Structures
1.
Amino acid sequence: MINDKIKKVLLLGSGALKIGEAGEFDYSGSQALKALKEEGINSVLINPNIATVQTSEGVADRVYFLPVTPFFVEKVIAKERPDGILLSFGGQTALNCGVALYQSGVLEKYNVQVLGTPVQAIMDTEDRELFVEKLDEINVNTIKSHACNTLDEAKKAAADLGYPIIIRAAYALGGLGSGFCDNEEELEVIGNKALSFSPQILVEKSLKGWKEVEYEVVRDKYDNCITVCNMENFDPLGIHTGESIVVAPSQTLSNRDYHKLRELSIKIIRHIGIVGECNVQYAFDPNSEDYRVIEVNARLSRSSALASKATGYPLAFVAAKLGLGYGLFELKNSVTKTTSAFFEPALDYIVCKIPRWDLGKFQGVDRELGSSMKSVGEVMAIGRTFEEAIQKGLRMIGQGMHGFLENKILKVADIDKALREPTDKRIFVISKAMKAGYTVDQIHNLTKIDKWFLYKLQGIVDTDNELQQYSNVEDVPAQLLLEAKQKGFSDFQIGRALLKDEMKDVAETEILRVRAQRKKLGILPVVKQIDTLAGEFPAQTNYLYLTYNGVANDIDFPEPKADDIHTQAVIVLGSGAYRIGSSVEFDWCSVNALTTARKQGYRSVMINYNPETVSTDYDMCDRLYFDELTFERVMDIIDLERPHGVILSVGGQIPNNLAMRLDEQHVPILGTQAQYIDNAEDRQKFSSMCDRIGVVQPAWKELTNMDDVNDFIKQVGFPVLVRPSYVLSGAAMNVCSNQDELVRFLQMAANVSQKHPVVISRFIEGAKEIEMDAVADKGEIVAYAISEHVEYAGVHSGDATIQFPPQKLYYETMRRIKKVAKKIAAELHISGPFNIQFMARENDIMVIECNLRASRSFPFVSKVLKLNLIELASKIMLGVPYERPTKTEFDLDYVGIKASQFSFSRLQKADPVLGVDMSSTGEVGCLGDDVSCAILKAMLSVGLRIPSKDKGILISSGNAKQKTQLLSPCKLLAENGYKLFATGGSYRYLVENNIPCEHVYWPSEEMEPQALDLVRNKQVDLVINIPKNLTSGELSNGYKIRRAAIDFNVPLLTNDRLATAFINAFCSMDINDIAIKAWDEYK
Amino acid sequence: MQNEKAVSLILDDGHVFHGFSFGFEKPVNGEVVFNTAMMGYPESLTDPSYSGQILVMTFPLVGNYGVPAASHDANGLSSFYESEKIHARAIVVSDYSKQFCHWNGQKSLADWLKGEQIVGIEGIDTRELTKVLREKGSMKGKIVFDGGEDIEFEDPNLVNQVAIVSTHEIRKYGNGSKKVCLVDMGVKQNIIRCLLRYDVEITLVPWNYDFNHMDTEFDGLFISNGPGDPNLCGITVEHVKEFMKTGKPIYGICMGNQILSLAAGAKVIKLKYGHRGHNQPVRRYENGQPTPQCFITSQNHGFAVDNDTIPADWEPLFINMNDGSNEGIRHKSMPWFSAQFHPEASSGPTDTEFIFEQFFSLL
């Protein structure tokens, strides 16, 4: 029975995507808001993450793009006076904020009821000591843990427990600041760092090598409990669960094991008093039934999002309903629509989650995996064998891998070491080791991975070896070919196995030859439904995957009728794993394209495999294929669906890259046609087009050898931008300032430039960067949004702070941009979304690149402008009537700022410096009546704080130009009573300009006071450290200070322009002056 | 490459599924039923309730953790099995795991099947097979080896399966103060294990044994699970009716529920495809009204009590939340009650083990 006093509910989001808190909370929050809507409850959402689906029109009744911090949430509560608040749908950010509001009495003051799990229960799970006590009460084993407030206490505790031990920081996101220590020296390093994040650290006995198993548990207020899903980590304890390959359901647990842990989970959830959902993590002894509870998350989590997608059970939706007072028996299973929500899903498939890392993007980062999370995204693969699921998954992570085998040769200096000390590449090290003759036992001894998983992997190797005995696919026995497919081999892998090492890349014709041969033999995948009940009851939803382990499709594929669009499919290709450069924004785009197609009456079909997304919610479309976005799999689905058309332009670069190959197979592509996409993607073609139509680009050349490179640089001079073609987010892209750097970088990039040669272009310093997001219809621009980077060119557009509408652009510049865009749109016959990046100095504009697809900033500009550019673009691509928008950015009386979220604190040793290669993991978008207000909101939303006047600000202001840039902000700081500390050059410059400051020394200088000590002792509350240039000397010089700022959790700014904007903002207004205005109040 | 013998699973309605043998090699027939549990194959295979049946596992990966040793505990009960042998006639899976890994695994599923002369086949689209059974109902089927001997279909429900699996002799377990008579309709050993947690002495009697006239005076009667059609067990029903005259506690599990219901005067009907799995939701009823108490249960039955035939002095105790079928009854005034599901689990969830305590507290 629902509590009818609750009329208005506040939901806290999780803010920008960061490592440890990503898209899963957009999914959870969206589900909760859907549940509120269904009950007719007024919903208010606080989330500065503007690219999310949950902050879209029609999801919540009111949206505040504000930081999820007690300060701002209290203000919103005071204004909105909600009856209830939901804390468990916005990750640790929302939970921590909620606990703080409860403890400070704000919730009580405004009479806001916490819905679902009581705050006391949350605190019981978050504080380790309380947690252990609580579980001791019911005789449940936990990991013996000593809470320590100082390093000395930690050392004593470690000595008592005996090494190895693990350190954890209390109240930390996804294991932040935790680590294993084998001895006291290691404890000193890790302990100090953990203490910088949290006043308390926990020292525990390490259980490395135990199995790690999780249960997702649900409880209603009537004490009815279910475990919706259990999951087992492929990687044993020691690697954070977010870093582990995970399977669901568990595979190596017997009935006794499974139900022992299940029973404990229910005992725990009852004792703690959760109402809603929680997650229980266990360490489980591989040699007995001994166990320890690792932790309980009293909220929706990454695992619960995964469990929802793995089982089809909408945990967040159900948890929200339970929070409102329903019993599980009052809710229906949302897949069958007839059976009860009180049940435990039975799977008849296996899912495999694989993390996606982007460690290659970070200078100096520690690649070893451990107890803290570094991955930026994940994929989920579904199959009816483990081999099928894991091979699919390894292709899905999208790092050029084709599965477990038949990949580019991985160079491993010491296989034993690489097996023992896991990195992001370990699964491929296993593959290499098996090929090199390592036995399952040997690998098990080095990795402690359960032998069952290794046997299965060995089976893949065995099949590969069998395939390699043939040279022509026509000679391969049908049974072997079928078995290979059943074990998840792609046509590409089979082709390469047949051709052996003779060819580095299997020619397209060979792949098609494999495809043709297996089709001839009738070896085709079948479509199976995920129905939560293993076929026991019919399912009403179309949540689908493909498998070769089956003989029949679960659904029908009737012939589409030309006169009935309800029989015609529109397929939208999604964006795959979240990674640096492609995340929730493309999910928003995909969802909007699907919704538009659906509203027009088409059968909307989604292909995507990212469990953290809303687009993979089976309610969002008519058919969801939770499967690969490879050419092979997309063609399999197209063969079955025979679609009216395929939309490639809303899922980022992955779908875009398929354009030419799909076109060759005569697949109907909606929107801009493949040849034009290619004309934009291929630099050579694009450049000659620009020349032809009189559009200027920075001088560039595609080069394959060093002599040509040197000749070209003689013409244009340093600095130059070096990059390979066909990239997103600038993988392996770099600015080189001198010969030395150039040579070093080219050697590193040579490996990736075989197929697509290196492109070198002139790099213009001090230029403005401008973006145009637009929609065109048959070559004519229908709507556009021009936005301006705060930073000068040289900061990747994904890392840059963007203001929209532009605040400091000449009218003339805007006019020229429009003119150029018009020409390009016409020349490329654009129909649909596109984005052009410009560089401008004075009024000279140059085109940097053009993408004939939606860009990262589409949701941001759409929401600021309140004009859904994707809906418009989708209508154009579908060829249906649309209204030509009349509103433009010139009509806006407010400003939007998009700021980037970095996750350097999780990436140990990485240099937190921004460059042409993207390194942010997420973003926020905030609105304000003026730039200062918007910037302040945005910067506070990405974790900066207004520096306290009791502490100082440390300044290292870079080269001469940058020093000049920072002069007036420094003056402003001094005038506002901030104490400034500066290193050598900056100190002299400031003193010369009569700005009071104190001299501190670089780590390389043997003088006191040391800049590093200021940071470590938290005497400063902001570090501004602008690298002079990107030479290795400069980088190592400032690196220590920048890294210390990150490690000791002191806000850091490394860009002079952004620092200026931020300083101006907080010096010109007080935090209390920030207007608490909802999105709809900006008119 | 696959080098096992090719086999065909042929259903009574003409459907044929092709796969490979991994167990004992002989043609076999039976009633084809599916189970949606994701683990617990050693327990299921040794559950006497599967007597006469070809068991289809909907979860595709089977055999992962091998099979535990056939050891026994101090009471002479099997340590890890539900009876002394495999009762299912065959097991049908999608992806058999040739290698296994578990500290308690002593042999592979394949070796166990071969030793027990039980058929095991893999490479079957068990989801498609399940959907056929769901649409058409559990049906007769047979597994034949390609190029080998063919056999006839057989309906095991026409045969009294209980008589096949029930004990032939009276056995005693425990030496507690309360005397419990346990009627073996095909008892799972975990029922005995669960009862032995209390201060009881159990007398296990054959299904057709008249326990009303024994030397021991029982404090309560417990009717076990068992295979097949309860309507073939009229004699047991008569014995239970007579025991009712004592007014002492009676409890029935699974077929025990059906026997008790028949004794009460209700009817038992065959379900289209039964309930077999670990995720069956049941809701507790009181005075004909649903309570907020719900349980996830382990189930394995093809027959059910017809709710509409429950006599006036009895009432449903549990109802299946998916299809509304009966999951247990109780007498409105006497200490007689039952569960269609398996509170002893094994395999499956242990949420309803409290029922044993309830029974004991009534003794």
2.
Amino acid sequence: MKTTFKALLAALAASTIMVAAADARSVKWARSGDSLTLDPHAQNEGPTHTLAHQIYEPLIIRDHTGKQLPALATSWAVTSDPNVWEFKLRSGVKFHDGADFDADDVVFSIERAMQPTSDMKGLLTSVESVTKVDAMTVRIKTKGPNPLLPNNLGDLFIMDKGWSEKNNVQKVQDFKNKEENFAVRNANGTGPFVLVSREPDVRTVMKRNDNYWGKGQVPLEITEVIYTPIKADATRVAALLSGNVDFVQDLPVQDIERLRQDRALRVNSGPENRTIFFGFNVGDADLKTDNVEGKNPFADVRVRQAMNMAVNRTAIQRVVMRGESVPTGVIMPPFVNGWTKELDAAPATDVAGAKKLLADAGYPNGFTTTLHCPNDRYVNDEAICQAAVGMWGAIGIKVNMVSQSKSLHFPLIQKNPPETDFFLLGWGVPTFDSDYIFSFLYHTREGSRGSWNATKYKNPEMDKLIQTLSAETDIAKRNATIATIWAKLKADVVYIPVHHQALSYGMKSDLDIPVDVSNQPKLKFVTFKRS
Amino acid sequence: MFAYSIRSLAQGALVLVAVAFISFSMFRFVGDPVANMLGQEATLQDRQELSERLGLNDPWPVQFARFIGNAVQGEFGVSYRQGRKVSDLIKERLPATVELAVLSALVATVVGVLLGVYAAINRTGFLSNAIMSISLIGVSLPTFLIGIGLIYIFAVELRWLPSFGRGETVKIGWWSTGLLTESGRKSLIMPVLTLAFFQLTLIMRLVRSEMLEVMRAEFIRFARARGIAERTIELKHALRNTLVPVVTIAGLQLGSVIAFAIVTETVFQWPGLGALFVNAVQFADVPVMAAYLMFVAAVFVIVNLIVDLLYFLLDPRLRSGQRVAKGH
């Protein structure tokens, strides 16, 4: 009798242990680079935001399709004054250290993000002031009507005011300081995971926040996250194949097919919020980087059309990208407000037609020019350039390619005046609205606009239209203006669109993490496959 | 010998300044860190301001002077990539690299000398020929290929060893070591073999040829004539005389193993100084690059000094030679 009882007890104990083991689901997560800092306002950069999204939360979050969901704000609306937005905050939320979340934290965090050393201030230029109405209500006053303000808040994380004051991190990290800011390696958010330990470039461990407000609303099945950057492609893939990691974010395109064959693994693919394209100097009267004297061939729209027609996008998709891209005719990812199928359609590859256009423009024998290309920023960026150079060669345009690191490539575009006449660039749209593309890439370079427009494209009429977008509160009217601008810009071929970059995530088959369009997977949404 | 050390150290300081000078004049070609430090919404004015604040707009001689001024005080600034003190970063990464490098050097030297001696003594044996053939692979295969090959065999196929990283580490003061945990020791095996392979084959071939050379020397023949046992001749007379060049090479190799563990560290995602440097170069993180290059130069200076001092111990002629020189 006694022994049976003991055996029963043992069996019971064993079964509880097994249940506990099945419940504890740890995920080892690898990608190519680490977050640069945990200070949520110091770097406006993908991998940095990705890690921050697990620990900190914004007012409004986006799910993997780009749809806005309430996070720390439960509702938001423009008040009777079109310059003022009101946000109702979520009550009962606690920071990881136990402090309550309220309006003071929101006011503090937004003001912190507007400081000169903040890298997030560029998204808040329209903000004039942030005020607390009551403990759970905040108003943001903008310098003029800003119908899209909530779109700019998706990566704007809320810190605890009390914690920040206690640890002396009211100021955003400053590279000129001689000391490290406490917030660089420590964090206190409201998010679904709590930071356990952080060794930059080596390992970051987070455990599930058992007091999370969203418990029951989101799956939150992962109990522990171990995040390890693995820089070398082959090593990262080997880590997944050998079972040393469970989830890999940056899969090299050449390995995807092979990983799909492995039954123990799952590969999820989808388009990213990023379009790859070429741009040229269309504004100068003469170029230094070509062999045409006294003229700028790129200033002639027929030359640009010819070069656009010469690019065989399906060949690039098939050969260079191994299928991991979506060819396009517009420099706007499909999730962005303003995108249409018609705009997205790329011209058919037509070498004869392109040659004819070139001859019409006065270049029957083509010309020689120089293309600048990054080699460590986008998926197979250098190979895309190489392929395109060959395609332009087929219509008689001899392109010399200069391919270099992003630290050398981007300054060429950013400098004023730009130091490149022909370049490759990729563009993601964090606000999911066309205005973001117009303002940075098409508007004349002046003031806060046009900082990435290295084309010297100047169209005062378009500039005026673009400026109306930021204040237009009538959505239908605004969308009509967006359509007008796109039609004109597409006809002008200021850029040659290539494709939307696709993303692939590799994981163990019991995990199913969908591709996040911003490439910022939020692990609280992840569920395990029950077998 | 003391005066000699002082002189060497003074020369070392000069070397350091020269390295700093050359590396600083080359940082311009790495790119503009500001492009990486600010997000895409940053305006032209933001970039200008940051450049100005970091002193990147100053002519490089000014930047160089400022760097030397700070470096003398042990101040290397804050990493542009991580926002952390460079001296902290180096201190944090140093143990991983030193552990890897010292173990590799040890494996390379011990196994290299043993195999070299064996191959020299049994010049025509089957095993010697096999060793010599395999060593050719070691000299000619690139390190990353060896690393990836090992990962595929032992991590992906056999699943005996972890494919990347350092495993669990234990902190002893500020030093972190992987030698005290099982996962740490397992993680060391492949990186150490990868890093040691080239040095090992080099040392082995060197020992073999030096030893063959020495075995033909007259004093060996006299030793044989005196009836000394063959083993004693080989291990005491011959080996000792082959060691001087071997120590030089092995010593200098230790320097380069520490300095250029970059490839091995990248392949195995080993959190050492080499990996830190690679990331710094891609980001144009000037403070980290400058400090790392200074560190590597210092390692070479110190290793060279130690090698020089070892000569005195190994070669009695150097000691007497110096006395003779003083007599003139």
